[in-house]
Amino acid sequence: MEIKGAELARIIDHTDLRPVASQDDIRKLCQEAIDHGFGAVCVNGSHISLAADKLIDHNIDVCTVVGFPLGASEPVVKALEARRAILLGATEIDMVMNIGALLEGRSDLVLDDIFLVVDAVREATSNGEGCVKVIIETCFLTPDQILEACSIVKRSGARFVKTSTGFGSNGAKLMDIMLMRKTVGIDFGVKAAGGIKALDFALECIEAGANRIGTSSGPKIMAGFNSR
User: Fold this and answer.
1) Can you give the pTM of this predicted structure?
2) Of residues 13, 61, 94, 176, which has the active-site annotation?
3) 78 belongs to the catalytic site
4) What are the DSSP calls for 38-106, one per residue?
């Protein structure tokens, strides 16, 4: 599949979710996003306002994480966190699914957990929409559980299903991405994240079905593309 450099850049969520990330690190992240034309930056909640201020005159989304990285927060807490994030300037929310509930077969709780966040984001956004991506942490799931998780996410009103937090035992895998795409269909979002550090693997993830790439290596990936 042929892809242009600008198209690749817009697919990338340039990410710094390290617990040690400083304000200077986030300023650098945002400047790199501006320089390369990335579609979004993804930061922890305490950095939302800084990123939003830095990117105010640029067509770059501010994404943050909710219930991160474990997914085990109370649903009402996730919803509050998401609502507050939107009010601070975030335009996209990457929430972590309640992984333990899925593994226990408590699909109703998983669905309600996601729906509360989706509803909170819709209420907090001026146009009543907002983008929620749901991290299912594929490293903990069997193929059947990945299929079930994707089916729940699609029913929830979220717009993307995402492979990984980057803090689990493994990150994105091509077979998981292909299964996710097959399950959600062509019109739903699939975000690959976790361990995507090189151009070739990023392109393989896109070929497998991802239409968004979460990575802290965006500039390196673009440098690889531009040097081909």
Assistant:
1) 0.97
2) 94
3) no
4) -SEEEE-GGGHHHHHHHTTTSS-EEEEEESTTT--S-HHHHHHHHHHHHHHT--EEEEEP-HHHHHTT-
